[in-house]
TrEMBL record, chain A:
Residues 30-203 form the Exonuclease domain. One of its GO terms (molecular function) is nucleic acid binding. It comes from the Bacteria. Transmembrane segments: none annotated. This is DNA polymerase-3 subunit epsilon. NCBIfam families: PRK09145.1 (NF006601). One of its GO terms (biological process) is DNA metabolic process.
Automatic annotation (TrEMBL), chain B:
Residues 11-112 form the Cyclic nucleotide-binding domain. PROSITE patterns: CBS (PS51371), CNMP_BINDING_3 (PS50042). This is CBS domain-containing protein. GO terms for cellular component: membrane. The keyword Signal does not apply. Keywords: CBS domain. It comes from Modicisalibacter ilicicola DSM 19980. One of its GO terms (molecular function) is [protein-PII] uridylyltransferase activity. The keyword Nucleus does not apply. Pfam families: CBS, cNMP_binding, DUF294, DUF294_C. Transmembrane segments: none annotated. Residues 218-277 form the CBS domain.
Length: 205, 606
């Protein structure tokens, strides 16, 4: 509710701006799977370390044309998160500034619907950085892979309590986990899970 | 990082680093559900598919059921390239499991083909060329040795020393000394004869010839010859076979060079010659047994050096022949040797035996020969061969069995009888006899018998049709690829691949009265006659070599005790590299189309 009011307000403000087109309804058949690696798990404080996005079109995952951005070392980069994503301060040398990165991300995703695994977290972190700089939150339609999967399991095997952990979902769907805990790897794996599910239900119907 | 394709395997190994990078950056991922049709017959090819995970069947939907299965692809395999080259797909590709593929877009594939001709060529190549690639790849590192082994005669021959017919012994000796040669060629009446240093020495010292007498008198005019383009290896084989130390290289009937054994030896410093030397020098059975036991070691060394299997087969056939011949000479008294002919049959007769398998042999006695101890001698021969490492034949097709020792006229009757009877056992005996090869005694006895065999069989269409049927008795195991419940069972390479080719080619050879017994030589002759297209004959030969090589790997592994399997003929597809699998698939495809031709030619459709 709050989100839609915000979006309506953003839209009116941006109507004549550079990013007004992002608010137009999407008419194509593509989606974008996104994932971020961050310095922590609290969306209020976590900083972006890397951002990746990959398009999905006609059941294919277009890894040949994907976005994989490393950002300049944020101050809050700490040992705990390095253990997860493996990006040290030195690996981020020559990374993008937050402004450049967000601009590239907006250009890449356009007004396509977004897909992600627990996408709310990624959106919260991105929007926290996006709003002060560009004046709006990501207006795109969003789909959480966890919800898509939960719904599918409820429909086909109501007796099962779905295991919603990332690896367990990939395994249940028979999708190989590509480059776990890299932004692009997780984005691609999530995209594959989605294609796998949509493919299956398309054939079933 | 996201792209996990083995770019070190052909065809990608034919790209350079920047080409490989274009592949890794240019592919997308596609997911296909079980039973989903990935590419249908008649559809334009939009992608080259490289399987990351899953299994895909290639189907010809015009054929019913399992017959329509053309191929099977699993992780690491590639398909769809041909569909792009041809514009549309000829067959249907269907996922047989949930399948994840990398998709290489058509545009990128075409750019790569344009930029890297070798890459483009890969997809147009015949099996023969692909096998060469495999061998080259295996031999990175060992390449130099294989290069030596595959050197042509022209690389190693020395210019011939030719003198006129009026030359005296003294002049010939001077000429030899001047040019540091070992042999001289005498030109006389448009023919060429050879005189070696040994010949000169024997003539002067032993026969007391005068220094001034013409050298023509001692020249040898039956020359063992070769062509400049032949492999050096073949020269070694013919030297072993004819027991000489040099071959004359002829081009258009004119000598262009001489290859000396010592020259070849400097190329093959390895043990191959040592073993043949040991066989030659063995003057009792024990020494022969020692030499004979070293053959597997020789095979392993040659294979490791990447020598092509057909040359290994040639060399081994020559060596095995010499061993059996020696054993025969030790046992049979000289007066009887000329009255009979010892035959080896089956794979040994075809020269396709690499490691020693069961002995299959028989004896033809000349009509009217008088050899009272024949049965006892033959019993001893069989026992000796067992000692030399040739296991007894379970079907008892051995000279110790009186049924396989007969006079020439009795053999003729037997063959006529077999041809008339046409039951399973008779057909098998005919097939065995057809592959017979003379290793000792009077070879003309076998020639007469073979002519009789052809006489009995070649015009009998019904017999040929019965004969050919055996080639179809085992199905081609294409369907089993990868889908086996227990992959360790593997596919039976002998029934599925080797036997149909060998027997089919044998049938065609019988029909066309082709004399040579080795399958490759028969194929060559069939292509020569136009009975088979040359390309197809080459592919069949290549397929056979591939099967034989896969089987040999299993057998060697078993010899070393690395593998305990009781089934040396079973190949576990999953343990092969993706290129080997690709080759195997293609080879089995060739077997399948050969069977179709056979059943068409000999009316076996019903």
């Amino acid at each position: 509710m709050l989100r839609s009011i915000r979006r309506a307000a953003d839209r009116r403000r941006q109507a004549d701006g550079q990013y007004g087109w992002l608010f137009n309804p999407y008419t194509g058949d593509e989606m974008v799977s996104i994932d971020c690696e961050t310095t922590g798990l609290d969306p209020k404080t976590a900083e972006l370390v890397s951002v990746a996005a990959v398009r999905i079109k006609e059941g294919r995952v277009l890894i040949s044309d994907s976005l994989d951005l490393r950002l300049q070392c944020p101050e809050s980069l700490s040992g705990d998160s390095i253990k997860i994503h493996g990006l040290r301060g030195i690996d981020l040398d020559g990374g993008e500034t937050l402004d450049e990165a967000l601009e590239k991300l907006l250009d890449f995703i356009g007004n396509r619907p977004l897909l992600g695994w627990c996408i709310d977290f990624d959106l919260a972190v991105i929007n926290r950085h996006l709003r002060p700089r560009f004046g709006f939150d990501l207006p795109n339609a969003c789909l959480d892979m966890v919800n898509v999967y939960r719904r599918e399991v409820r429909r086909t095997r109501p007796d099962l309590e779905p295991d919603l952990r990332f690896e367990a979902m990939a395994k249940a769907l028979g999708v190989p986990v590509m480059g776990r805990h890299t932004a692009l790897g997780d984005a691609v794996t999530t995209a594959l899970m989605y294609v796998r599910l949509k493919n299956g239900s398309r054939r079933a119907s | 990082m996201m792209v996990d394709i083995d770019l070190s395997q052909p065809p990608f190994s034919l790209l350079d680093e920047s080409g490989k990078a274009r592949v890794s950056k240019g592919v997308d991922l596609g997911y296909f559900d079980n039973e989903e049709i990935i590419l249908d017959a008649g559809q334009p090819g939009e992608f080259v598919f490289i399987i990351h995970k899953g299994e895909v069947a290639e189907l010809d939907s015009t054929l019913p059921g399992d017959q329509g299965r053309i191929g099977h692809y699993s992780a690491g395999d590639l398909f769809g390239a041909i569909s792009i080259i041809n514009g549309k797909s000829r067959y249907r590709f269907k996922a047989e499991q949930e399948t994840l593929c990398y998709l290489l877009p058509k545009a990128l594939f075409e750019q790569l083909c344009e930029a890297y001709p070798a890459f483009a060529e890969f997809f147009r190549q015949t099996l023969a060329n692909k096998t060469r690639l495999l061998i080259e790849q295996r031999n990175e590192g060992g390449m130099t040795m294989a290069g030596f082994m595959l050197a042509s005669i022209a690389d190693c021959m020395r210019p011939p020393l030719i003198v006129g017919e009026a030359t005296t012994v003294a002049q010939a000796a001077a000429a030899l000394d001047d040019s540091h040669a070992d042999s001289v060629l005498i030109q006389a009446a448009g023919r060429f004869g050879m005189v070696t240093k040994t010949d000169l020495l024997n003539a002067l010292v032993l026969e007391g010839l005068d220094k001034g007498s013409p050298v023509l008198g001692i020249a040898q005019f039956t020359l063992v010859s070769a062509k400049p383009g032949d492999y050096l290896f073949q020269a070694l084989v013919s030297m072993t076979r004819h027991k000489v130390s040099r071959v004359v290289v002829l081009e258009n009937e004119t000598p262009v060079g001489v290859v000396e054994l010592t020259d070849v030896l400097s190329y093959f410093s390895s043990r191959s010659y040592m073993v043949s030397l040991e066989v030659e020098q063995a003057d009792d059975l024990d020494a022969l047994a020692v030499a004979s036991a070293r053959l597997p070691e020789l095979v392993k060394a040659l294979m490791a050096q990447g020598v092509r299997l057909r040359f290994v087969m040639d060399l081994l056939a020559a060596l095995n022949g010499r061993i059996v011949n020696k054993a025969f000479q030790f046992i049979v008294a000289p007066p009887y040797q000329a009255q009979c002919c010892l035959l080896v049959m089956g794979s040994e007769g075809r020269g396709e035996q690499i490691l020693k398998t069961d002995q299959d042999n028989a004896l033809i006695l000349a009509d009217g020969s008088d050899w009272p101890d024949c049965a006892a001698d033959m019993q001893r021969l069989t026992e000796t061969l067992i000692k030399l490492g040739y296991p007894p034949c379970p079907g008892n097709i051995m000279v110790s069995n009186p049924g396989w020792v007969k006079s020439e006229s009795a053999w003729r009757e037997t063959i006529t009888h077999w041809a008339a009877k046409r039951d399973g056992a008779s057909l098998m005996n005919l097939a065995i006899m057809l592959d017979a090869h003379a290793v000792a005694g009077d070879a003309t006895l076998l020639e007469g018998l073979r002519a009789h065999l052809f006489e009995c069989c070649t015009r009998d269409e019904l017999l040929l049709s019965y004969f050919a049927r055996a080639a179809l008795s085992f199905s081609t195991p294409l369907t089993l690829f990868g889908t086996l419940k227990k992959p360790e069972h593997g596919i039976d390479i002998k029934k599925g691949g080797i036997f149909p080719i060998v027997h089919g080619v044998r049938t065609l050879a019988l029909e066309r009265r082709i004399q040579p017994t080795s399958t490759l030589a028969r194929l060559e002759a069939l292509a020569e006659e136009g009975r088979l297209e040359r390309d197809f004959a080459e592919d069949l030969g290549e397929a056979l070599s591939l099967f034989a090589e896969l089987r040999l790997q299993q057998q060697l592994a078993r010899l070393e005790g690395r593998q305990k399997s009781e089934e040396p003929n079973r190949v576990v597809v999953q343990s092969l590299s993706s290129l080997e699998r690709d080759l195997l698939r293609e080879a089995l495809g060739i077997v399948k189309s050969f069977k179709q031709r056979l059943s068409h030619r000999f009316h076996l459709e019903y």
